[in-house]
Amino acid sequence: ANHFTFHGRRSHELVRLDGEDGLKVVPGSGLGILRETPEKSDGAAAFAALPPEVRAYARRPELLVVTKSASRSTVHRPGYLDYVAVKRFDDKGEVCGEDRFLGLFTSAAYSANPSEIPLLRRKVADVVGRAGLASGSHSGKALVNILETYPRDELFQTSADQLLSTSMGILHLGERQRFRLFVRRDPFERFVACMIYAPRENYTTELREKWQAILVQAFNGTSSEFNVHLSESVLALIQITVRTRPGQIPPFDVHEVEQRLVAAARRWDDDLKSALIETTGEARGNELLRKYAGAFPAGYRDEFAARTAVHDIELMERLSDAQPIGMNLYRPLEAAPGTLRFKVLRRGEPLILSTSLPMLEHLGMSVLDEHPHRLTPQGASAIWVHDFGLRSALGDAEIEVDALRPVFEDAFAAVLGGKVENDDFNRLVLAARLPAHEIVVLRAYAKYMRQIGFALSQSFIESTLAANAPVARALVELFKLRFDPAQAAGAGTLAGGEGREIGAGLGNGGKLSED
Hints:
The chain is an alpha+beta fold. It contains 21 helices and 14 strands. Helix 10 (268-280) crosses helix 13 (306-317), helix 17 (436-451) crosses helix 19 (469-483) and helix 19 (469-483) crosses helix 20 (485-491).
């Protein structure tokens, strides 16, 4: 009745060949693309190559089989051909052959109500009856609506048993913002049909591509196609068909595959919420989420994980007029030896690159890159996050980040605030782990020596001390022993005469004896 566009037709006999089932083409039965030609195989070899469990499907006493072919149509529309097989039975009621038809269902077959198509009408009635729901109830009406709007190809091809299981699963989803995966395996293992129900607001093309890649890997597929169904429902339906090779579909756990899809669908905001609540507690976490959920631009989200953002939020919460910047020196897990990253957070205006680069270079670092991000917390001033990639002047030597972090951050803040000069004496922060306020001592001595006519320049002194970091540290320690009152009070506890002589020297105007 013009509901099927025929492309080919052929009859087969199911026979025993060498103790195994085989298909034999009935001579003269081929029409259209299934007509017999010298170049074409009779199909027996292809059937024999199928796995035993797939060949056994030919013996199942099902009168009608509707599925998809592995071949695309070259006319009408470029979809995969519909495969319709009508099995024949002998006097004993056993399958003895089939009449196979290839073609495409027409638009009328897709738009007609299932009640107008005998095969679908019987299938839907069977499912509704077995579901046991009252016909006038809300759940009963919802189930009927699910079946009437069910993807038509799936409704044709799915067995009543699997249709009942899937439709009840969809019914239980309702309008809740939940995620579900339903999988149907082609009996001939030529494809795996997947139906994904996901919150509509989360769906994106990028996410669908991730899902396709996950499913192709899970089912050892060769390719995949998709269809997206969006309606007034809060859930979107994404159909993904994975093309497979017969006998090469690996064992799979639908729940495990579903969890992989869920993980891929998790938004950055979802991870941020979980991390905030886990770190700060539910009440404080929700409060911070309201303030910072929309603060992070796309570039930041691409570069940093949500858990990293929690640490940045903690830094931003400590910013004030008295403390307008926050810092974090860290080493990423994948960082090469000798490389670090330094994050600077500043309220209001961004940090000018021509200002920050000389500071970092004088601190013994080469700047490899810088990624700025403007954050806009709700009800607060904009905050700039500058993430610098650094390489140590010490080369590939291992750096103890935890030990370096406090002195490095304090030195950068002191230089940025104008409390410490921006020169190469600051290289001792990295080389000797000296705090900025202790380096001031060596800088003062160098300037004093220049005033009294010392021949060597300040740059020479800077490079010499940086190249001899232990000596620089020892000079600072000596200064503290001689002039720090706290050090002087403890000097008498030193062993032997050394302690007495240092104590005497400190009591004599700070002049040490020759010893």
